Amino acid sequence: RNGYGFDDLVRRSSESRPVKTMFGGDENDTTVGLALEEARERGARRNKGPGKRVDDGAVVVLGSGNLALIYLMEERRRLTLEEIETRHPRLVPALRSHPHVGFVLAHSATDGPVALGPHGARYLQDERVEGDDPLRAFSLTAARHLLRADGFHNAPDLYANSFYDPQVDEGCAFEELISFHGGLGGSQTRPFVLSPVHLPIPEEPLIGAVPVHHLLKGWRESLQRANRQPGPARFQRPVEPRAVQR
Fold this sequence. Notes:
The protein is α+β, with helices and mostly antiparallel strands. The chain has helices at residues 6-13, 27-48, 81-87, 91-96, 142-150, 209-228; strands at 19-23, 59-64, 67-72, 101-108, 112-116, 120-123, 128-131, 158-162, 192-196, 241-245. Helix content is 29%, strand content 22%.
């Protein structure tokens, strides 16, 4: 779209030295490549000591679909928004003002997690909006998902999500893909469960990965209990599957 990659945008907007880039691309190739790299590093540690290390002054950029994660490696902890603005004053403004970035998620020392857009901010803990809400084009549960992601112990210093235009159902990927998944926006945020009709579905909506995990785990445990019950095997007529959108 622009003649440069998202990692190039980070590189020219940060004060750190090298920018290391890792993009998903073909998922199978990535999985095999990571497995080989881990095997090489284990062998190097056995034979020659420690394997490769990322420079302490580096920035690591990871892209998956229309989501990008930025790790500033100068500290062994997550930097606050205020620290990032002091150490890398050009970075956040460059990201949030880019026409193809919908919002940047950072963690403020005073206000907690905040989604920053080109013309406004949304503070997730108290649902306070300043200016234009950067999550307006996304799902009604977007803030809930971002609040959970902000609490991960290995959360990046900055999350960046592409723009999303609901009128034409358009976003953009931060890697070399035609379609994408991983971030917010579009049909990727409208999943469904396809299941046989005899399995129970909860009345409340399934929002996020955790309720889906508990649903599948409960089905597995109930089916295992049924299979352990003594008695003659009975033929069960197959049932038509049903799709339940949540």
